[in-house]
Design goal:
Chain B: This is ABC transporter permease subunit. The complex is a heterodimer of chains A (about 300) and B (about 270). Chain A is of the alpha/beta class. Chain A is built from eleven helices and 14 strands. In chain A, strands 6-7-8-3-9-10 form a six-stranded mixed sheet, with helices on both faces. Chain A has a four-stranded antiparallel sheet with strand order 2-1-4-5. A four-stranded antiparallel sheet of chain A has the order 12-13-11-14. In chain B, helix 9 runs parallel beside helix 13. The chains are: A alpha/beta (about 300), B mainly alpha (about 270).
């Protein structure tokens, strides 16, 4: 498989001391690549380099063999881009915006655009200044996907979408993946990374911390389960069972599981379980933990 | 240039431009309409000619205002019209680039296969086209107004068109440096304050230089020095050379703006 996106030695230092430093990454053709890290880690800065908005201090980034800074227009004809901050032009409605984008892309056929609008269900005639954040996000998604690009660069694509629309979006990514498209997306939401990405890169303070297969990441990921048992005695017994218990209040026990779900299930099957809840961690919490681990190792 | 972007921008700026222009032409017609009553009032002219020479120059009435050309150049081209065009140049040039960069919508325009140069050139064309529409409308308004609104006095239509040509080129030049500032700034407010400060400074230099003969040198620092409707009307103004100079100057600055915009980092 050839490399669709290649970042080599990419460095950009800002006056604030932030930036990205000697970044090396490759995304293979047909791969969905998650780009993770806390706010300010340099995710958007990397994406700005990929889109040719910024010139690197050192190093380079290439998409489909072309240099992102010098050959941006040629790259853009194959790329769909969803910016992290949605800011459309003022004084126009959604349809006019999409017409502008398809006009600038020289598109003739609007079928795919109309399908996407149908799918995400929004009124394209709404003036942009009256749109909610979620609705703007939908317009942005349509603008990124409507020309059926080979490569998708998505900066926090589901922010602002409700859970239903987030699922729709995940389905869309999976479809594109099945059609052989290459996707690089930054994200904060573990679910969407977990369900869509093949590999992830984790960024911290502008430096690459790790590049992993998602399957491996799931292994190191710690999840918290809230278990409600029938009696306090049972709860107390479960707390002593050798599982990692982070909290025990009455009949409610919070158990941290990392990797070994079978042990957890075996232990749990010995009790009368009234309810079981996954305590959702957002990506930052997960990776903060992950960073701590890396540092202590 | 990109047609889709041009159409969109024409639509977005069109309404504002149309209201600017219609207000201006209305004002022009009003000025024309009161001309007969002024021209027939020798007292007013006496009053004007009794003023100190510096003040007359500052008001742009050193040629008196009884001849139609003199009157229009003083009452219309010398006053509010200039201010309206200044506002138009500053506002539109800031909106053309700096606002789109500041608010982030430039990210969309530049995510298409249209290059930065093409986007910038298109925006510059929209800006200059607006000025052109202004000039065409005020020229036609002036010519028709003189024809139909009042008993047409004898006046030189050629000189009137020349005044409009210089106005167009002067403000194209002003628009060019405002556009350059817009291309340099990440921040819409900074672009606005830089381009308006500079333009007001130029305007004041010209005004102060006109008023005091000791400070005449100040006028030479300002592009507004090249706009002397009274001299054009008198026929002592090198319209051809000044047009050429303004035109080439504006083109160079627009070219510089596009190349600056092409090479810079954008915080999108």
């Amino acid at each position: 498989m050839s490399h669709m996106i290649e970042i080599s030695g990419l460095t950009k230092a800002f006056a604030s001391g932030k930036g990205i430093f000697d970044l090396n990454l490759t995304v293979r053709e047909g791969e969905v690549f998650g780009y993770l890290g806390p706010n300010g880690a340099g995710k958007s800065t990397t994406i700005r380099h990929l889109m040719g908005y910024m010139k690197p201090d050192r190093g380079s980034s290439r998409i489909a063999g072309k240099d992102c800074w010098n050959q941006a227009p040629a790259i853009h004809s194959r790329v769909g881009y969803l910016p992290g901050e949605i800011a459309f032009m003022e004084g126009i409605d959604g349809l006019e915006f999409l017409n502008l984008m398809s006009g600038m892309r020289g598109m003739k056929d609007n079928k795919r655009r109309d399908d996407l609008i149908e799918r995400f269900q929004f009124d394209i005639k709404t003036p942009i200044r009256k749109m909610s954040k979620g609705m703007k996000q939908k317009v942005g998604i349509v603008a990124a996907f409507m020309h059926d690009p080979d490569i998708l660069i998505l900066d926090e694509p589901t922010s602002g979408l409700d859970p239903l629309m987030q699922r729709l979006f995940i389905d869309l990514i999976l479809e594109e993946k099945a059609r052989g498209k290459t996707v690089l997306m930054s994200s904060h939401i573990f679910q969407e990374v977990d369900r869509t990405c093949d590999r992830v890169a984790i960024l911290k303070e502008g430096r690459l911390m790790a590049e992993k297969n998602v399957a491996d990441l799931v292994l190191v990921q710690r999840r918290l389960f809230d278990v409600v048992l029938a009696s306090e005695e049972a709860a107390a017994a479960l707390s002593r069972s050798g599982l990692e218990v982070s909290k025990c209040e009455g009949v409610r026990v919070r158990i941290a599981v990392q990797g070994d779900y079978n042990l957890f299930l075996r232990e749990l099957s010995q009790y009368d379980v009234l309810s079981l809840d996954v305590h959702e961690l957002d990506l930052e919490e997960i990776f903060m933990h992950y960073y701590d681990r890396e540092e202590t190792l | 240039m990109n047609m889709a972007l041009l159409r969109n921008m024409a639509k977005v700026h069109g309404k504002t431009l149309a209201s600017y222009i219609s207000a201006t032409v209305l004002y022009e017609l009003l000025i024309i309409w009161v001309y007969p009553s002024i021209a027939n009032s020798p007292q007013l002219n006496d009053l004007l000619t009794s003023m100190p020479a510096g003040l007359m120059k500052a008001l742009g009435v050193e040629g008196g205002i009884q001849k139609y050309n003199d009157y229009l150049s003083a009452q219309f081209y010398g006053t509010l019209f200039v201010v309206i065009l200044m506002v138009y140049c500053i506002m539109t040039s800031v909106q053309a680039i700096a606002r789109l960069v500041d608010r982030g919508s430039m990210a969309y325009l530049l995510s298409t296969p249209v290059s930065r140069s093409k986007v910038a050139v298109t925006q510059a064309i929209v800006l200059v086209f607006g000025l052109f529409a202004f000039s065409i409308c005020t020229t036609i308004g002036g010519l028709l107004g003189a024809q139909f609104l009042i008993d047409a006095p004898a006046y030189d239509k050629g000189l009137f068109v020349q005044v409009n040509l210089i106005v167009f080129l002067l403000f194209t030049f002003i628009a060019s440096y405002c556009f350059l500032i817009s291309c340099l700034c990440d921040d819409e407010k900074r672009a606005l304050s830089w381009s308006s400060s500079l333009t007001v400074l130029f305007y004041s230099l010209d005004l102060v230089g006109k008023m005091s003969s000791n400070l005449t040198w100040m006028r030479y620092l300002s592009p507004f020095y090249l706009f002397r409707p009274q001299d054009i009307v008198k026929g002592t103004f090198p319209v051809g050379w000044v047009s050429l100079g303004l035109g080439i100057g504006a083109l160079l600055i627009f070219w510089l703006s596009v190349s600056v915009f092409r090479r810079r980092d954008l915080p999108l």
